[in-house]
Each structure stands twice: as C-alpha cells, then as structure tokens.
Task: inverse folding
C-alpha cells in the first residue's frame, strides 16, 4: 500500500499540534509496512526531498509571493502540492492507494488528483472553519467552508478524533454518519484502526 | 507522429458568455482548428440558459459551475473557479476518447488550472497572453495587482510557448516577465470576414439614410469613449475636415467621456454633424461599418486594435494613429493611412485624403482586403497555431515526460 499525506504543517514548520501528529503517525504507518509520502509546505527548504525513518517528505513553496489573504496563498500553493504529488504518481509504476489530506488546505489538489487518476481521498479533520471563525459567515469564511464542503463531498471516508467533531460535521455539512470514522489519538490501536480505514477505502475502490 | 491532435482550450469566457475579446478569439480559433482536423475541447465558465456540454461546429464545449464558491473578491473568485475548472477538466480529459496532447490556456484567468493540468497529465501547456496586468494598470501597484502579475509570470514560466497577437505584445510580454526570445510566438488575432458578406445594396441605402444625409460622407468611430482611445482627437479634427468635405461623424460606443464630448460638440455648433449613437445592435454596427466612407481609430494606446481589422474586413478604408498594434495592422499609404498619434491636424489630413479621392480610397480598400485575407484569416491563424502545437509536441517527444 502506498499513501500520500497532505499537510500544511510538518516539522520543522509547526503552527499547531498537527505537525507533530503527522510526523509520529507517518512513522508508525511505515512501521506497519505502508509506503508513506508526506507533501508539505516549507518556504526555505524549497523542493527538498527527505527520507526520515522511511517516510518520504517532499516540501514545496509558493511561486507567488504577494497575496491578499491566506486563501489566495493556499489556492496557489495547491498547484505546487499537486505538482509534487503528480511527480510521485508518474514516477511509480505501482499505483498510489489513497490520498490522506489533513484539514481543508490541500483539498483542491486532492480533488483534481482524484478526478485525474481515480485515487480515493481520506479527509482527516482537525478543526472546522465554523469553530475557528466563531461561525462568521462573511465571504472569506464562506469560501473556506465551501472548500471544506468539497472535501466532505469528494472524500471516500472522513476521519475525526472525537464524537463531538463527528456530530459537528454531520450537523454543519449533512454528511452521512457511516462516512465518518472516529479514531483516537496515536496509540497503536488507533494506527491499526487507520490502517483498517485505508484498507476499506482501497478495497471499496477496487470493487468499483 | 500520430495522426490525431487533441487540444484542450481553457478560457474563462466563451460565447454566449462574452466579457471581452478572449471569448470571440477562442470561439473562432477552436472552430477553425476543428475545420482542419484538430479535436478541440473547450473548458469554460457556465452561462445561464446554455447547456453544460454541447458540440458547436465540431468543438466540444464544456461549461463548468463557476459560481459554486462564495468569494470575498474577484481575484479569489478566479482561483476558486480554477479549482473547480481543473477538477472538471481532469475528469473530462480522463474520460475523453482520445488522450489530450496539448493544454492551451488564455490569460491568467485560467493560470492555475492550466499549470495543474500540465503536471497532472504531463502534457505541454501553451498560453496566449491577450493582455497583462502591467499593461492594464500601467504598472503594478496594489497587492492584488502584484499577485496577478506574479501569477502571469508563473504561467508564462510553466508554458512551453507563449503566443501573443501582435509584435508589440510580444516585446511587451517579453519585457514584463523577462522571457527568453525563443519562447515567444506571434500569431495575429483574426477577423471573421463571413459576417460582412452578402448585403443587398438596398439594405445598405436604408441603413445609410438613417444616420446621414445623401450628400454627407460617413466618418465612423467605433469604441469606448475613453481617453486612451483618442476620441477627443477626432472631435477636435472635425472642423478641419468639414472645411473641405461635407461629412457626418458617427460615434458608436459609450464611456466616461461622453458628457464632456457632447458639451464640446455643442460649443463647436456641430451637433448636426457629430452623432453619438451609444451602443448599437450587432447587425446595425455591421451595416454601419460596411457603408462608412472612412473608419477612424485615433487611439493613444492600443495593444492590438481589432476595430481597425473589422473596418478593413467590412471594406471601409481606415485612418489609424501610428501606435501599438495598429502600427502593424496598417501599412501606410497601402492598406490604410497612419497619422501621428494625438495630432488633430494629422488626423484631419488623413481623413480628407481618403474622402476627397475616390480612386485612392478604392485602392486602399483593395489592398486592405488582400491583407485581411492573407494575414488575419482564421483558417491561416488556425494552421499557424496547429503548426506550433506540432512543433511543441516534436520537442516534447524527446523529453523524459513523453
């Protein structure tokens, strides 16, 4: 099994707790025999490819330096994430089994790759724009929510850490209950749970 | 070399969605490419009342849902639209009977979609730069303008070839983005001659009588009433022209200078000689262009100058200011008359020269018609474009992507 992980933070770039979480998680996935690539952003390690405990890390930067918001920065950065992912997909004979995207940032890249290659998506949700923005509904927040919606719509499965989050997603986006998996933090049983989710997705895909 | 050539055009406008010049350009280019055996898919934005997929003149037109996402501003809308466009385009390319060989993007409005599709399918990307943010704004000043300028630079960087519609635009684009010379190609814009054909002389007379008296020559201006189009130069030249010829000036179009111009005309006592029509219906415009004794394009700044081409195709002799793309369209004393920009005396001289000499006017119309047929014909432009596709694919076949 080969998996691409998209995350906008990964050590040494830490914004919140997601960076370290993805680092530990990807290491444990490799231990389970899953070939794991992490595609992430880093401004001054542009284009760097690193192999850390078997995890392949690819870092990209945004060629557009001037922006009007985080949104335009994210939307343009997605092209480089997409390019890095496409390079991996084209260079490997064996098909990439799935894309695991963390939060909304790189959903645009994931959905194009899905429609071009038929690669399924697992969307892992750390937080929702509704919660981050105190339910603000100006066009800027609504645009981010619409990207989250696209992610929920296109994802084959959604992963969350708590039942509270599962309920929040069900409420805000009308996502069917059985599409959402609740997995705890990164205990070994959670990793085994995640591996099982991966298998469900890829098995489901091969049936289609 | 394989026989089939499959191209996917990306454009934010396609008829009936018409915002500027890109829409008719992509329409005629796609249609003309299809006529010479190229399979063309156009992926564009949606428009109320037209289907999301249809085949027009053998061109596959796909219209994507472009207002799906709420957006805080225009530039963000463009990037979000590009997200949806490339997702849809990727699905279309994947399902298409034949694999897409080339992606062809038009302007920065489809930049990120074009760049994405290039890398996802590992096929060459071509871009036609119709305009630049630098040219539109006379430099880049605000954060949004800088962002758009950098997106344009990125697009030209990712493109295998950059097509421009005039030599003027080639040098401008080359300078604006610091591109190597061999990356740029000049393929002119075209004009559809078909629409100017087959009118009965009776119709011509009726239209003419609606706008001018039988003994008046018609001097036609078509364009926005804005400073850079130089319409005020024509108004200032009018008394000098009227000293020598009895003429009616027909000004088609609108813009922020309208009030100002009307008051100048009033103070000159020329209300009966200079007629402001505002916008007119397409068919009326066509007839006007056909019966104009002279068409004037007095622009101070002009990247291409399609109005001059249309006038020439309609069989009206042209007087243009010697600037930008107009300098290339018109050859002085042959396919038209070029006058000094921003100079009413020079413009008056050009107009009277044509109006006073029927034989000369006929000679110019003939030459202009020949040039239109030879250089600005969509068939020829499509053939040139196809040639560029093939040469790019030749280079591509030797790359490690092939």
Result:
């Amino acid at each position: 099994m080969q998996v691409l992980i998209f995350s906008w933070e990964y050590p040494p770039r830490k914004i919140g707790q997601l960076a370290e979480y993805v680092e530990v998680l990807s290491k444990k996935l490799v231990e389970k025999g899953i070939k794991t690539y992490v595609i992430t952003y880093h401004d001054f390690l542009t284009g760097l490819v690193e192999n850390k405990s078997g995890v392949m890390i690819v870092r990209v930067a945004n060629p557009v330096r001037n922006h009007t918001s985080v949104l335009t920065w994210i939307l343009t950065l997605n092209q480089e994430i997409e390019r890095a992912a496409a390079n991996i997909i084209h260079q490997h004979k064996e098909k990439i089994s799935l894309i695991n995207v963390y939060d909304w940032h790189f959903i645009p890249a994931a959905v194009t790759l899905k429609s071009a290659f038929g690669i399924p998506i697992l969307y892992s949700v750390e937080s929702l724009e509704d919660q981050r923005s105190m339910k603000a509904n100006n066009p800027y927040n609504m645009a981010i929510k619409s990207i989250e919606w696209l992610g929920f719509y296109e994802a084959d499965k959604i992963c969350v850490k708590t039942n509270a989050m599962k309920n929040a997603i069900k409420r805000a986006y009308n996502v069917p209950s059985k599409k959402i998996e609740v997995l705890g933090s990164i205990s070994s049983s959670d990793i085994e749970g995640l591996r099982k989710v991966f298998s469900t997705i890829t098995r489901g895909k091969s049936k289609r | 070399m394989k026989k089939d050539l499959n191209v996917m055009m990306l454009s934010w406008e396609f008829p009936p969605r018409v915002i500027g010049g890109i829409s008719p350009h992509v329409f005629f280019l796609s249609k003309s490419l299809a006529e010479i055996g190229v399979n063309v898919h156009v992926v564009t934005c949606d428009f109320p009342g037209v289907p999301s997929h249809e085949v027009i003149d053998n061109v596959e037109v796909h219209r994507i849902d472009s207002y799906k996402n709420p957006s805080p501003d225009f530039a963000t809308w463009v990037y979000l639209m590009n997200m949806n466009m490339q997702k849809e385009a990727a699905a279309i390319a994947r399902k298409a009977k034949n694999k897409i060989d080339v992606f062809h993007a038009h302007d920065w409005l489809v930049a990120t979609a074009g760049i994405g599709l290039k890398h996802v399918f590992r096929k060459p990307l071509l871009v036609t730069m119709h305009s630049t943010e630098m040219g539109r704004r006379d430099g880049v000043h605000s954060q949004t303008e800088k962002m758009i300028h950098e997106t344009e630079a990125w697009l030209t960087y990712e493109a295998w070839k950059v097509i421009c519609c005039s030599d003027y635009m080639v040098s401008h684009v080359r300078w604006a983005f610091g591109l190597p010379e061999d990356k740029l190609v000049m393929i002119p814009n075209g004009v559809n001659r078909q629409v100017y054909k087959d009118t009965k002389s009776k119709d011509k007379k009726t239209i003419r009588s609606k706008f001018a008296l039988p003994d008046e020559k018609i001097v036609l201006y078509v364009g926005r009433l804005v400073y850079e189009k130089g319409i005020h130069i024509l108004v200032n030249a009018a008394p000098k022209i009227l000293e020598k010829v009895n003429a009616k000036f027909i000004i088609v179009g609108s813009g922020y200078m309208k009030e100002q111009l009307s008051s100048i005309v009033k103070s000159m006592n020329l209300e009966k000689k200079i007629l402001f029509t505002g916008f007119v219906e397409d068919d009326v415009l066509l007839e006007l262009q056909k019966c104009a004794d002279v068409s004037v394009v007095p622009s101070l700044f002009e990247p291409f100058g399609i109005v001059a081409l249309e006038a020439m195709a309609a069989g009206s002799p042209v007087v243009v200011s010697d600037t930008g793309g107009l300098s290339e369209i018109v050859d002085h004393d042959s396919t038209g008359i070029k006058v000094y920009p921003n100079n009413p005396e020079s413009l008056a001289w050009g107009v009277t020269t044509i109006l006073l000499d029927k034989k000369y006017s006929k000679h110019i119309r003939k030459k202009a018609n020949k040039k239109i047929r030879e250089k600005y014909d969509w068939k020829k432009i499509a053939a040139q474009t196809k040639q560029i596709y093939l040469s790019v694919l030749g280079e591509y076949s030797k790359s490690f992507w092939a």
